[in-house]
Write a structure and sequence with these properties.
This protein is mainly alpha-helical. The protein has a domain of 211 residues. It has 15 helices and 2 strands. A hairpin with a 3-residue loop joins β1 and β2. It starts with 8 loop residues before the first helix and ends in a 9-residue tail after the last helix.
């Protein structure tokens, strides 16, 4: 079961898009102290009129600069704006930041849009009425180091699932490293609460699921499908979820109450990581389209990463978004 409401990714990325500013208008006014006044010179009869004299350059450091000169001066002293978000957008979601070509292709993958919109409205009501308040309370009550340990624990539990899928994808080196991470973090990391495999041994994290394995086998594109409670999917990923169930460690917890409690804590932990995106989601003109396009773009990026065997993980959100500390607002 993939992460809930991963479609909020594009909302934050869209916020990084700026609009070009127009240059300042030129002004002809000058300070009287900086203007050189010359006496008129008598001209000989029939002579060509002399061209107007160019104004003398000012030497007053306090004199204002006009038009392009002011723009150039500001650019010279101000540091360049951060471009990380824009670069990640172009890398993950394609060069068309406006969503033109990609948006059209994603709409073509959504022939079941009327049904999906109804399911999305149901999921949004559940999220706003239950999951969002629960995640806010979790962030307010539970200290950040404890929440980090919980996230590490569930990340470690996903390692056997990634290990199996990496083998099925024909990537033995990554699968062996994933198994090694699991063993190190389980033993030395106290069941996965800590991550010595990354911090001490510099072992890379590799992610995979059966939906991505099916894509590696040839099922590249698939129709968009939103499921009740489970959120965005594609038809391929929905089929893959059944394969993931057989490899997920929590499936083998025989005590029902313990298994349900673990799954509930996992969902709350995932939802708390998305709190910083709520305001942007709420402000979206069409939150369904934003969710759909973000989900399909992220999955397409991960599938291409698997084909080129890049180490991109299995997070629903890019790493730079997952690192942001959510600031819960007061209800």
């Amino acid at each position: 079961m993939n992460r809930l409401l991963a479609g909020a990714t594009l909302g934050l990325l869209l916020a990084t898009a700026g609009c070009a500013t127009q240059p300042a208008p030129r002004t002809a006014a000058e300070s009287p102290a900086d203007t050189i006044v010359e006496a008129p010179v008598a001209e000989a009869p029939g002579a060509e009129p002399a061209p107007p004299a160019a104004p003398a350059a000012t030497t007053d450091p306090a004199a204002p600069l006009a038009g392009d000169a002011a723009t150039a001066a500001v650019a010279a002293v101000e540091p360049p704006a951060e471009e990380g978000g824009d670069e990640d957008f172009a890398t993950i979601y394609g060069e068309d930041a406006s969503g033109g070509a990609n948006g059209d292709s994603f709409a073509a993958l959504d022939p079941w849009e009327p049904m999906n919109r109804r399911v999305h409205a149901f999921n949004s009501a559940i999220d706003q009425g239950f999951m969002r308040p629960l995640a806010r309370g979790y962030v307010r009550v539970v200290p950040a180091p404890v929440r980090t340990g919980v996230s590490n624990f569930f990340d470690n539990l996903s390692a056997p699932l990634a290990f199996g899928n990496l083998l099925l994808q024909g990537r033995p080196r990554e699968s062996v490293e994933t198994l090694g991470r699991f063993l190190v973090n389980t033993v030395a990391g106290l069941g996965g609460l800590f991550d010595p495999a990354t911090k001490a041994l510099k072992m890379h994290r590799h992610g995979a699921d059966f939906g991505r394995t099916l894509a590696r086998w040839g099922w590249r594109e698939s129709r968009y499908l939103e499921l009740p409670f489970l959120g965005p999917r594609t038809l391929r990923d929905a089929v893959g979820a059944f394969g993931d169930t057989s490899m997920a460690p929590m499936t083998y917890v025989e005590h029902d109450r313990t298994r349900v409690s673990l799954e509930a804590l996992w969902l709350v932990d995932v939802r708390s990581a998305l709190l910083s995106l709520d305001e942007l989601r709420d402000a979206a003109p069409d939150e369904y389209v934003l969710t759909r396009d973000a989900w399909l773009a992220r999955r397409r990026y991960l599938v291409e990463a698997d084909r080129s065997e890049r180490d991109e993980g299995n997070e629903s959100l890019p790493a730079y978004l997952m690192e942001a500390e959510p600031a819960p607002s007061r209800p």
